Request: fold
Amino acid sequence: MYRKIAGTTFVALTLAVIVGLVPVRGDEFSEKDVKRWQEEYMSVVKTGRELWVSADLGTNGVACAQCHPNAANTHPETYPKFQQQLGRVVALRDMINWCLQHPLEGKPLALDDPRMVAIEAYVASERQGVQLAPGKH
Amino acid sequence: MSTSRLTRRGFLKAAGALAAAGCLPVSTVELAFADRSKSFTFAHISDAHIQQIRGTKFVRNWDRGLIRAVAETNLLAPKPDFVVFGGDLAQLGKKSELDHGAEMLSKLSYKVYCVMGEHDYYLDLGEYWSKLFGPHYYSWDHKDVHFVVLNSVLTYDEWTHERWPTQEQRMLEMAGLDNPNGSQFMVGEKQRAWLREDLGKVKKGTPIVVFSHSPIQKIYKGWNFWTEDAEEVQALLRPFEDVTVIYGHVHQVQYNQIGKISFHAVMATAWPWPYPQSYALAKSHLPRLTVPMNRADPFFERDATGWQLIDMKNGRTAMRYNLYNNTNRAVAFNPKTGRPEDTKFQEPTAGLPPQVHY
Amino acid sequence: MKNYFYGMILTVGLICAAVVQGKQEPASPPPLGLPPVPIPEDNPQSAEKVALGDRLFNDQRFSSTGDVSCATCHAADKVLTDSPLTVSQGIRKLAGTRNAPSVVNSVYAEKLFWDGRSPSLEDQALHPFVNPVEMGLKDHQPILDIVRSDPEYAKAFKSAFGKSGGEITMTEVTRAIAAFERTKVTANSPFDRWYYGGEEESLSAVQKRGFEIFVNQGRCLSCHVIEQTQALLTDNRFHNIGAGINAIRDEVPGLAGEFLKAEATASEVDVKVLTDKRTSELGRFAVTRGFDDLGAFKTPTLRNVALTAPYMHDGSLATLRDVVVHYNNGGVTKEGDPVNDFLSGGIRPLGLTDGQIDDLVAFMEALTSPEHASLADAASKK
Reply:
């Protein structure tokens, strides 16, 4: 008798899994997940925007937004590219660091600094929809 | 080269250089209708954005821009009749910034007429400005041309007087070009009424030049390249045959023709701004006529900054941009086409590659 | 010296081979760290031209006193300069106003002279002959008289250009000199072998630190260009870096005004800038009369810089350390002095420590090509 109950339970569970009544770990995600992750992302974009207008990234009170309102003229879609100011092919964050050191007279951020990611996230968000054009001067 | 002595003209010809329009001030841009008896020049320096870091320390980059413009303007020969400062002398309207800027401007060996910018205005609504430079809007006549200065960076009363808890906050909100909390520029009813009365006293046929900080056009709202009552102001200017509006604020080369009014933007001495079309997420209306300036190399702090020498001939203007690390530009009124044109680069085929903005 | 000579023969031989094959450019690649040598179409290289140019370059008869040649200021054992003179000396040891630039790698320059008043090596060669403080000739006729009558020259011009007697003009003379100068190309320095050759041991740790400063805090790279696959170490542009002009700060309006009113021929500019020190400080402004060029001078290449002291257009900075200190001060030699109003937008105080300055100097010493390195050894033994 117990074998019959176990067998039925097994079949029922399997069916339930197949039908989707029982959540399973794997590469599935729901609309709710996507929405939540989008908000996680936007929170970093928001941080990036705050850094963009902040007078404290450098030492002279100049903010990125002073020369790049809405991150215009940063061309994130063209990286990696040959950057004249650095004499070699670089990624966007290398040029961000160049700007921090030169017009903003500050110190570069570590390449894995969360603030660097935030700045890149903001720059990319203001440029969304533009086709990739790596190497374009 | 078979000759041993090379004349300068020969050398320049060989080098293919268009020396005439490029070099200041030996040559003058020859306008087709030149009647030299009615011509004179004046200089225009704008958007210095003197920015205090702390105490007596100011952002060196912007200081050097104004210092250089003043020093070069002083070298002009023949001398200009006067100099106009186009607004945004200070960055946050502080007394220290206005004083530091005024001190640099005082080195100019000419009479200076000043225009109000929003970075000068929104801390104390121009109170200290008036002590230094006088009225916010006014007019004068010079060699049969009627000059008007407008304070075109006003905005709605509620935003100006009620919305912000402190004047510092108000200044900060207006200081961010892309700040969504900002508010549209306008000339406003009071000044339009004054302008109507002022122009009413001007003889028909007199050329008019209006100095303004905002463009008296609607170019891009998001960055306040915008004057809310542009149409009303243009309507007041319509009865005149030769009208030029010269404006600052945009930190870039722009020019346009609307009816009989020519519009010329001036450069900043401090830093350049991107063209609105380089902001992918917004629609803008950059005047189609404009051949843009080159993109800047930010290593050279004076790149894409400059000042202007303006020729007035028969009531129309030729604006010569003195640029650094770049070929100088000249935008002159072309009577054949009835609009301002770049004297070298107006045709698309004449463009230089870096002038692409995207 | 011998290796240098044989190396040159090899290069010339390869160039000949290339010319024989009908190519304009030498078939051999340029030394490590440099792009291909630009050769103009109207003056292709040939062994005969180069040998003739060598002879002309060293001929002292082309001066009013008979004892000054190109090699007087551009000596073979001094990286083709006259180091350690601050400014060059011509006939009767008359001093000019400018420090002799090296002819080595001058083929990569787009304009010649410190103020760029000459558009090509061929044109440049015309000027010193007729300058009163250089060779002092009234015009080029004495040169033509010699090259048209001297039997050795007759043979050489015939084989190089197929011309003889009255057919020989200054065009042929300057083309031969330029062809000779175009063979003076050296690189393959310790820096090149490290950066482009992947040889980690070529630079010391100090020099590697110096390189980082060169690219970042030192702000050297934008004018002294190093790129992904080659390094000219110059941008071929003109900048006011505050050397020299500070001496005439108050006189600039007057001097500039004079130039704005005068109609100068190129030759007059030549004479004026080398004989009048004050005018010399106006730099490229004396050539273009553009405000952007006030006090601006050409960026020289930094290749072999350790061997070509003293530095700047007027030789006013004695050592590389002095140079770095001048830049560190933001364009003034003495810290705290006011900078001039027309200073290039690229120049500003750097905030380097003493140690960083030393590192940067050490890096610049790694830019010396092996051909000239023996000179460095000799110098360090002094």
Residues 60 and 104 of chain A are 6 Å apart (CA to CA).
